[in-house]
């Protein structure tokens, strides 16, 4: 598709050309109609994290880090699986907000458990290793998922669901660090 308009070609002869659905101006780098929606959805997802942060902070000591991590990941897996049942844009946005609000509790629990599991002398190395693994997984996920989205939406949903369920079950096997003296 090229962006040519008849009024741009004054004193020119245009042969064998048809102009359909003409829009005025340059649409290569201006705001499209759905750009505002993209930012709004991102804002709502970021806003949904706030209640999750507050709830996880209040219940981290009462429920326990391991149960918060495992439970949050399993509930996040349920949110991911519910994407199969969502056919409207508002349902998908609501599930994204629910996912963001629930999954942040797992991240908070992981941060606390990581500090409590590793001794001070090895903590920086452990954080570096875990962050490197997270970055590698993010790069792999960002490059692999788009190739599946074009084929079917089932593959990314099932991969995310399986990863979250496995992560939640493995997290429940972590040692409980409540009431233990830090090294």
UniProtKB/TrEMBL annotation:
One cellular component term from this protein's GO annotations in UniProt: synaptic vesicle membrane
Annotated membrane-spanning segments are 37-59, 66-87, 93-115, 127-148, 154-174
Q: Which InterPro entries match?
A: MFS, MFS_dom, MFS_trans_sf
In this protein, which residues make up the domain named Major facilitator superfamily (MFS) profile?
1-178
The record describes its membrane topology as: Multi-pass membrane protein
Phosphoprotein as a keyword? Answer: yes
Q: Where in the cell is it found?
A: Cytoplasmic vesicle, Secretory vesicle, Synaptic vesicle membrane
GO molecular function annotation = transmembrane transporter activity
Task: Please provide the record's keywords in A-Z order.
Answer: Cytoplasmic vesicle, Glycoprotein, Membrane, Neurotransmitter transport, Phosphoprotein, Synapse, Transmembrane, Transmembrane helix, Transport
Q: What is its main location?
A: membrane
SUPFAM superfamilies to which the protein is assigned, alphabetical = MFS general substrate transporter (SSF103473)
Q: Which domain of life is it from?
A: Eukaryota
GO BP terms: neurotransmitter transport
Membership in a protein family: Belongs to the major facilitator superfamily.
Q: What is this protein called?
A: Synaptic vesicle glycoprotein 2B-like isoform X3
Q: Which source organism does the UniProt entry give? A: Gymnodraco acuticeps (Antarctic dragonfish)
Lineage of this protein's species? Eukaryota, Metazoa, Chordata, Craniata, Vertebrata
């Amino acid at each position: 598709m090229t962006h040519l308009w008849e009024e741009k070609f004054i004193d020119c002869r245009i042969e064998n050309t048809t102009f359909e659905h003409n829009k005025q101006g340059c649409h290569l780098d201006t705001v499209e109609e759905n750009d505002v929606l993209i930012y709004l959805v991102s804002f709502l997802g970021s806003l949904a994290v706030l209640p999750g942060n507050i709830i996880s902070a209040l219940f981290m000591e009462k429920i326990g880090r391991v149960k918060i991590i495992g439970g949050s990941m399993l509930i996040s897996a349920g949110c991911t699986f519910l994407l199969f049942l969502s056919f409207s844009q508002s349902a998908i946005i609501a599930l994204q907000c629910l996912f963001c609000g629930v999954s942040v509790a797992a991240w908070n629990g992981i941060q606390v458990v990581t500090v409590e599991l590793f001794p001070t002398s090895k903590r920086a190395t452990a954080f570096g290793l875990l962050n490197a693994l997270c970055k590698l997984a993010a790069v792999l996920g960002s490059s692999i998922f788009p190739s599946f989205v074009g084929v079917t939406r089932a593959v990314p949903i099932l991969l995310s669901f399986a990863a979250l369920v496995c992560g939640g079950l493995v997290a429940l096997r972590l040692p409980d660090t409540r009431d233990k003296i830090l090294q």
